[in-house]
Write a structure and sequence with these properties.
The structure holds two protein chains of two kinds. Chain A is mainly alpha-helical. Helices cover 73% and strands 1% of the residues of chain A. In chain A, strand 1 and strand 2 (64-65) form a beta hairpin. By secondary structure, chain B is α/β, with parallel strands linked by helices. In chain B, the strands form two sheets. Chain B has a six-stranded mixed beta sheet, with helices on both faces. In chain B, 45% of the residues are buried. Classes of the chains: A mainly alpha, B alpha/beta.
């Protein structure tokens, strides 16, 4: 038998080359805008960038100075929302994936989670306004805004945690049940230790989402301006309003006249930088935990 | 076989997944300290039957079970302590399943689940079970390494060690040799011959010759029904009661 390069083979090779080129082009097309955006932002922000910009407060009617109140405000909002949504989300997902039987109730919960994950943030904002600001009488406050963010991130955390749990092979659970382990003993000894990297990654990715959303905090607790000491670590109380990076960026870009040109860009760079830092942490954590994966 | 004490009594066991009936009312006994081999082609309900014994069938929502199963005289479907029932039955799955824990913890897992936590209590159990499973000499110097890192044959013996760690009175093996080599299989078979002095063994197997080598009695399960259950010599004598049995064990079909 001889291996000849017939016209049919040549055709297949051509198709292969074209397909590969198209896929590669699309992959590259994804990177180009990111690089353009980041470099443009950094270029425009350059005059203002620096440690001083982060720890200083806004000055001269917000046309100059730094972003400290907004930076701390975002830390507050994201931190508190995560304190609520991470435990609730993870525990709910453990129930749904490990305990729940396949009945109408749990199917309804599952459907609700999936649909909630797709609700636009402005709708969450309105919900937060009605539920926390008015109905629960928390007023326009950090508490209301953080809870709104928590509601927004919760379904995604549940979905990603379920996925992480489902990646642990069923055979491990069955082996545990066979030796008389309860479901909880099985979850604690085998399921959680082997899904923790996926769970944490899912949670951390929601940090960046919560930090970037504007509408939910604007409707429920973030304000235009708040007077805070330079570099003050705990400037806000739970029931007070606060500034937030995303909202601040919106304000600088559209509401304040005669802002120093680099200021909104620098704010965007800090927001983007924080988000990328958090994402990088998630990736590092994932790599580290995967290195310890045990099968 | 000492006396004919019934360790397991199964009466008219029926099992259906949704509306599809898998076991059509099977009745048989397993005597204490015997090895009962269960042979039969795939889809004949062998694994499902084992899952009824230790009630891990409960984890399958679509399954409905009827009939009675008694283990050591106790009705398993009415038992108050299902975890104690499962500890009474050691179960070995077809594919070697080392848990993603250390070798030591793989064996200590079941004792820990039932409340033991002192090293002084656990150490002897781990050593005894690993010795019983003929694995001790190979792993005694690396008990802290991962069970999942062992070879397939070693993991299967680890699985057996784990199944013995809760001191079961019955050991059920579900086609334990399909994923391991013949040499390891023979080693495990030797282990089983040792173990039968202490416990009762139900051996589900696709290898009719394995049933012939090991078992006292053999049950031929086909399409959810017992075709024949008798002493192994009779089943393989060339003149079992059923023609289907003869054809199956002599390799005419299946």
């Amino acid at each position: 038998m001889r291996f000849e390069r017939t016209p049919r083979v040549a055709g297949k090779e051509r198709a292969e080359a074209v397909a590969k080129a198209v896929f590669a082009l699309m992959a590259a097309a994804m990177v180009v805008p990111l690089v353009l955006i980041v470099s443009y932002l950094v270029y425009m922000a350059w005059p203002s960038l620096g440690w001083e910009f982060i720890v200083d407060v806004p000055r001269r009617g917000m046309t100059d100075g730094g972003i400290w109140p907004a930076f701390v405000g975002t830390l507050y909002l994201v931190g508190i929302s995560l304190l609520v949504s991470a435990p609730v989300g993870v525990l709910a997902a453990v129930y749904l994936n490990e305990y729940a039987k396949d009945n109408w109730f749990n199917r309804a919960v599952h459907l609700a989670v999936i649909n909630l994950a797709g609700v636009p943030s402005i709708v969450h904002a309105l919900f937060g306004l009605g539920a926390f600001v008015y109905a629960a009488r928390f007023g326009y406050s950090i508490l209301s805004a953080a809870l709104t963010l928590a509601i927004m991130t919760l379904p995604v955390i549940i979905a990603s945690t379920r996925e992480a749990l489902a990646s642990v092979p069923m055979a491990f659970r069955e082996a545990c049940w066979n030796v008389g382990a309860t479901r909880w003993q099985t979850i604690r000894a085998v399921v959680l230790p082997n899904s923790i990297s996926g769970i944490l990654t899912g949670v951390i990715l929601q940090v960046s989402r919560a930090a970037g959303e504007t509408a939910p905090v604007m409707f429920t607790g973030a304000v235009f301006f708040k007077s805070v000491e330079r570099g003050e670590l705990f400037p806000y109380g739970l029931r007070e309003q606060c500034m937030a990076l995303s909202m601040h960026l919106y304000t600088l870009a559209t509401q304040v006249p005669n802002v120093k040109e680099s200021l909104p860009y620098a704010t965007a760079v800090v927001l983007l930088g924080s988000v990328l830092l958090v994402n990088a942490t998630a990736i590092a954590l994932r790599v580290w935990l995967r290195g310890r994966k045990r099968w | 076989m000492t006396a004919f004490i019934k360790e397991i009594e199964v009466q008219d066991l029926r099992l259906a997944y949704d509306s599809k009936e898998i076991l059509h009312g099977i009745t048989f006994d397993v005597f204490r300290n015997e090895i009962l081999a269960v042979i039969g082609p795939a889809q004949s309900g062998k694994t499902s039957m084992l899952r009824c014994l230790n009630r891990t069938i409960d984890f399958t929502a679509s399954a409905t079970v009827s009939g009675t199963i008694r283990v050591a005289g106790e009705d398993v479907r009415k038992t108050k302590d299902i975890f104690a029932l499962r500890r009474k039955i050691g179960m070995v799955a077809p594919l070697p399943t080392g848990l993603p824990l250390t070798i030591y913890e793989n064996v200590a897992f079941a004792p820990r689940c039932s409340g033991l936590s002192r090293k002084a209590d656990l150490d002897p159990i781990v050593e005894r079970c690993l010795r019983q499973a003929a694995l001790w000499d190979e792993v005694k110097d690396r008990l802290a390494s991962l069970g999942t890192a062992l070879s397939g044959g070693q993991q299967q013996r680890l699985t057996i060690a784990r199944a013995l760690s809760h001191q079961p009175e019955i050991l059920c093996l579900d086609e334990f040799s399909i994923a391991i080599d013949p040499v390891t299989t023979m080693r495990i078979e030797d282990v089983l011959k040792e173990l039968r002095r202490e416990i009762t063994i139900v051996l589900v197997t696709n290898l009719t010759q394995q049933a012939r080598r090991l078992s006292d009695r053999t049950m031929f399960l086909w399409d959810g029904e017992i075709v024949e259950i008798d002493r192994t010599e009779v089943i393989f004598s060339g003149q079992p009661r059923s023609e289907r049995t003869r054809d199956y064990v002599s390799g005419v079909f299946g």
